[in-house]
Design a protein that fits this description.
Length: 159
């Protein structure tokens, strides 16, 4: 989820699914190790997240829940990330993200590590609400969990 992928008004439009099975050729897809931690979280759905994806670091502010949220992302240097990271102690997660191009969209498959090992989810980000509504998942997708607190990264990081 790079800043350039956002719609003009900094809205994130995405849906999240559990998977029935992993897609063929997953290991050949582009992938990254992601370390993610939260500097702040509120029950109202506001969060400040730190993320290191490969060699890229960012700070992200999110507001809201479900398929449509406000999101603002700022790229950080690795030095800035390292300085802020201790503030996320006790609110972290690790996962491997695979990027699968699919019908002019990008499916991001997250395979969690550590205490959440075994959890695998797929997220699809959309350019607009119409594309989001019309989306038909591939057959290897399972149950949709968009907006489900149980599968939110912030909850997983706080467990």
């Amino acid at each position: 989820m790079q800043t350039g992928d956002r719609t003009a008004n900094n809205r994130e439009i995405e849906r999240k699914f559990l998977l029935k099975r992993l897609p063929d050729k997953l290991k050949r897809s582009r992938h990254y190790i992601i370390e993610q931690g939260y500097l702040a979280t509120e029950s109202a759905g506001r969060q400040v997240r730190l993320r290191k994806k490969g060699k890229t670091a960012s700070l992200t502010f999110k507001v809201g829940r479900g398929a449509h949220r406000e999101e603002r992302e700022i790229r950080l240097s690795l030095k800035q990330f390292t300085a802020l990271w201790p503030g996320t102690a006790g609110r972290r997660l690790r996962k491997v993200r695979y990027e699968i191009p699919w019908k002019n969209l990008l499916i991001e498959i997250d395979i969690y590590r550590g205490r959440h090992a075994g959890l695998v989810v797929a997220e699809v980000e959309f350019p607009d609400r119409a594309t989001c509504r019309k989306f038909r998942p591939p057959p290897w997708f399972g149950r949709e969990v968009t907006g489900g607190k149980r599968y939110s990264n912030v909850r997983l990081a706080n467990e």
